Structure formats: C-alpha cells, structure tokens
Amino acid sequence: MVVLGAVAERGPIRIGNGPLNVLMNAAQSAQDWGSQPAGFALPLINSGGAVAVVDGVRLVGGTRFPAPRLLRLGVLTNAVCGGAWPARSAGKGFVLEHCGGRYAGPLIGHAFGRDPARVFFGFPAAAEVAAPRPGGCWVMTNVVLRYHVGIRHYTATAPYQLAICRGGPKITNAALNAAMSAS
How many percent of the chain have pLDDT more than 90? Predict the structure, then answer.
C-alpha cells in the first residue's frame, strides 16, 4: 500500500541511474584551503532525449573524514573548463574563474535537455560547501542526484572523489587516499 501511495504521489520510480548523471572521472584535492567556502563544478550529462529536472543533490562522504556540508547549488552557462575547479561564489550565484559564463539560477528545479555541444564537459552546475575545520579535511566520494523525466523519478549515484583540507600535504594526501579507497 505504501508503494502504491508513492507511485500515485510521485510517479513511477525507476531502477538505475537513468539518463542524467554527474560526470567526474578524476580524484582531486586542495590543501591549505582557508576558512572561505569551497565551490566546485558538478558537470551534468543528459544521455537521454527528454528533459530531466533536478529534484535534489546529496554529497556523500564514506570515509573517516567528515563529508562536506552543502551550502547551495547553482547552474552556470559555460562549460569550457573541465575538472572540479575553479568554481567560486559570486553574489547570488557562481562563476567559473577564467572561463567566462554567468549564473543561470538554482540547480534544484532546473531542467536539462540533451545538448550535443556540451557532451564532453557536461552542463556546468556548481556546489558551494563549508570549509573544513582548521587542521582538518572533508572528503566526498559520491554525488547522489535525484531527478525526474516526466512522471518517472530517478536516483543517480556517481563517483566523485574530492578532498579539501585546511592543513598541509600529509593530511591532504591521507584524505585523498581515503576518498579513492572508499569508491
């Protein structure tokens, strides 16, 4: 009965990642970050033909280090930069430093169609998270993306190994190794 209620309320729930996914194929880290929030890219790929609307994002830790604390999410208009960096907060939104582009609104509720011109880098979305505590790190191993295509709802889990530290190379290397080992 509970399953029928969920289907009636949200539409059919599909098994598998579905057509929308976060594409990040490299482990990355930053040390001596400081106390400012960290911004990083979430390159989204829609491999389907229909529009996918983002409903939620969760950043997963899974190591002895804490997971990042999400502050906000946004969509950018430029995808010429690859990798996690350099996204930074700019007023109400984000910009990709040295890449141009402008803020295009919040990620939650944004609709992504298939765009062959951006297939390599994906649609540029960004996340802003709190800085790690002094002398510590946070580690992310996966991004969980909830979205829907029409009445079908999906949950996609994508590997994304990222470590941000407010310390030197020793703790940064330990955090990055933990991220790569957990995935």
Answer: 42
Dihedral sign for Cα 141, 41, 57, 116, please.
negative
Consecutive H or E run containing 181: helix 169-182
Q: Decide which of 1 and 42 is more confident.
A: 42
Is the pTM higher than 0.90? The answer reads no
Q: Most distant CA pair in the chain: distance in Å?
A: 54
CA–CA separation, 139 vs 178, rounded Å? Answer: 8
Adjacent-strand bridge partners of 124: 43
Burial call 129-154: b when 16+ CB within 10 Å, e when fewer:
bebbeeeebbbbbbbebebbbeebbb
3-state SS string over 72-97?
EEEEECCCCCCCCCCEEEECCEEEEC
DSSP H or E run through 124: strand 123-129
